[in-house]
Amino acid sequence: MTKKDDARYNAPSLERGLAILEYLAHHPGGKGQVEIAQALKCPVTSVFRITLTLEKSGYLERDPETKVFRHTQKMLMLGQQALSETDLIGCALPVMRELRDELEDTVLVGVLNGTEIIVLEQALGSHLFRFSVNAGHRIRAFCSAPGKAIIANLPENRREKVIAQTEFIRFNANTIATPQAFRKELQRVLKLGYAIDHAEEYAGIYCVGAPVFDRSGYPIASIWVTGPDMRVKPERIPKIGETIRAGAMRISRRMGYAG
After folding, report:
1. ∠ CA(20), CA(22), CA(27), 5° rounding?
2. What are the structural domains of the chain?
């Protein structure tokens, strides 16, 4: 391919966007749009458009007082997922299978992406009637046990951003459908160490989940058990919750967490 051909396939805005992300990676304290433009020798108008687009997409955040831009946890999560998703599944699966054998219902592991949980892997339950989804399946975070478990343990600014982006939909009488009620629920999750989905989206289906932490103490994932209300009964939930919490901590230890 000639240089002329190369030029035909250039994407200047994309190149500048990547340059901005790389530049800010070296300045964790953040930089303003003018500073970025001067450092990268880009028009301020281009930097203005690109940084706002990256902010809207969740890759950058702007300090409301200083107006500087910095990376969000979304960039960190992308890197972590690329580098450690295989390690996460490798660390989680043996524990998930042990939990499945003990609880007899399907145990899953997933990560938070925006306002959704993405399922990575599952250990299928041993009952004839069992919950099953494909890897990549998306679940609303605000009304699910894994979503609550992860969001409750996020840093406050990240947690509030997820809440602000969440569309609270009432599916039934059990659904937590306001930001205020959701924040109260997250405090309960922190106190218990595990989260519960009281059939908040799908009638008759209960979930109990707990967070998985990386070596820095960041909640990178959650494991949870899912089953019908005939098995995940209210009187059994405390014991199930402690079992899932202990299993999630074992996985966290394998991921290097020492807290």
Report:
1. 90
2. 3-71 (1.10.10.10), 75-254 (3.30.450.40)
